[in-house]
Specification:
7 helices; single chain
Length: about 170
């Protein structure tokens, strides 16, 4: 029960950390979206309620802080969470190569959807900046994803997240 009460607070702190500290470290050149990696990790290791609420909270606070189209990241993060959950039931998702390729695909999907929304909703054509702005962000997020997965796994072991999901999988088989 305490998890559901603390979830919005820690999600807000996580998004603030992501949007301030990481952008300061990289001098506002590359934005590292660690929240996307956390959503994918939640899809692989959390149950539907906890992971869904986490994905919703991260998407909501990212929309609020960055000022993008309201609800865009909520829909994206919930979609990526549920797809990751389905993928984790079929594939062993602990290998670094799989994590790299899956995060790359999800980041590319997110970037494509955001660019399409900006073009069709706000009339901004940002596709010409894909090579110089968006592709480096996707590559950086992809390269740091195995390290983030290990960090989330260690933190998840403290919170007993991993045991829940593995017990549910054994009951489903």
């Amino acid at each position: 029960m305490i998890h559901y009460l603390l979830l919005p607070f820690f999600s807000f702190l996580f998004i603030v950390l992501q949007t301030t500290v990481f952008e300061l470290l990289f001098l506002n050149l590359v934005s590292i979206e660690i929240s996307l990696i956390l959503v994918i990790y939640a899809g692989f290791h959390m149950d539907v309620l906890k992971g869904g609420l986490l994905s919703f909270a991260l998407g909501f606070f990212l929309d609020v802080i960055t000022g993008t189209i309201v609800g865009l990241h909520i829909i994206l993060y919930l979609s990526i969470f549920f797809i990751s959950m389905l993928v984790s039931l079929r594939v062993y998702a602990e290998r670094a190569l799989f994590i790299l390729s899956y995060v790359f695909a999800c980041a590319l999907f997110e970037c494509g959807v955001v660019l399409l929304f900006y073009k069709h909703i706000q009339g901004l054509d940002l596709f010409h900046k894909f090579d110089t702005v968006f592709l480096p962000q996707i590559l950086v997020v992809t390269l740091v994803s195995p390290v983030c997965f290990n960090s989330f796994r260690r933190f998840g072991d403290i919170l007993n997240v991993r045991v829940e999901r593995s017990n549910k999988r054994s009951r489903n088989r």
